[in-house]
Amino acid sequence: MAADATDGPAADGAPVDAAPAGGAPPDGPTKQAPEGPAPVAADDGIERLRRWRDEDRGVPPAVGRVGARLVSVGRCTTTVRLPLVPELLLPDGVPTGAVTSLLADMGLTTSVISSLPDLRGVTTISMTVDHHALPPASGGLVATCTAAGHVEGRPQHASGLLHDDEGRLVATVCGWFLATPAEALAADRVGLVLEEPAAHLLDLLQVPGGTSFPLVARDALSNAISSLHGGIGALAAQLAAEAALDPASLPLTSAFFYLRPTPRHGAVQVTGEVVRQGRRTAVATSVLTGPDGRPLVTSTLVAALRA
């Protein structure tokens, strides 16, 4: 927004409150130029995210439920921090790269939202996470992401880095996204979803774990466009793929493809399987399937096998 005329020099270069050229300063206090109307915030993506950060207004339920918070917002760029609490660990207290993929989606989508000229939400088309290390068991994970400029009607690319609180690189991430109308009710919703803290990650999702399990979508796992949050879909898909692999494996690359909207309510089936296992690396795939049997989200996990 352009600065108000009273904030800077006049057209001839003299300050607005200066005496006329060649004349004496007026007696008494300098008369200030009248103030204009207060600037009105633009109803754009930055304003949408400001409401998330400052007012807890319009925060997608899943984002609030897992405790992710916006640290900073700029045009086409955001920083999001996820506190690493016990409910984001596996039942044995071990961290998982699936949580990295959860935050990757939240960080990338907010950077795309910050580029939008209006208050729309964002749908994930595809996302890739290159894992450099597992997240720590405590502290925080921070996603700093940047989106390409918005072009109406076209998918947008975004990329970013995830570090822990000590500055250690945990992942490099990127993906393709599409602006999508947000529900008016979701955009105006004030406050965060409140649930009792879960004992661990499977308890948070309310799933038994393993390579095949039903995931019952609920409001606390949803986004602002009436479907299961893309980060939750990535989290569940990677958990099933990891369960199919040797427990000693370490994630290298996770790739996710979002084929259809995942319903906000009802159950989807999550299934993972190994498609290749060598001496040093292994590949597993997973799929979220809707009640009609059609795939909603597919993923591929490439992992390294520990010696």
Structural overview:
The protein is an alpha+beta fold. It is 19% helix and 33% strand. An 11-stranded antiparallel β-sheet has the order 1-2-4-5-6-3-8-11-10-9-7. β4 and β5 form a beta hairpin. It is globular. The N and C termini lie far apart (57 Å). Mean pLDDT is 87; it is low at 1-31.
Features of the shown structure:
11-stranded antiparallel sheet; 307 residues; 6 helices; Porin; disordered N terminus
Uncertain segments of ≥5 residues (pLDDT<50)?
A: 1-31
- Overall radius of gyration: 24 Å
Question: The CATH topology, please?
Answer: Porin
- Label the structural class: alpha+beta
What's the SSE pattern?
A: HHEEHEEEEHHEHEEEE
Order of the strands making up the biggest sheet:
1-2-4-5-6-3-8-11-10-9-7
Shape: globular
Specify the CATH homologous superfamily: Acyl-CoA thioesterase, double hotdog domain
| Name of the CATH first level | Mainly Beta
Amount of helix: 10-25%
What is the domain tally?
1
Number of strands: 11
Query: Which sheet architecture does the biggest sheet show?
Result: 11 strands, antiparallel
Summed up, the helix count is 6
Strand percentage lies at 25-35%
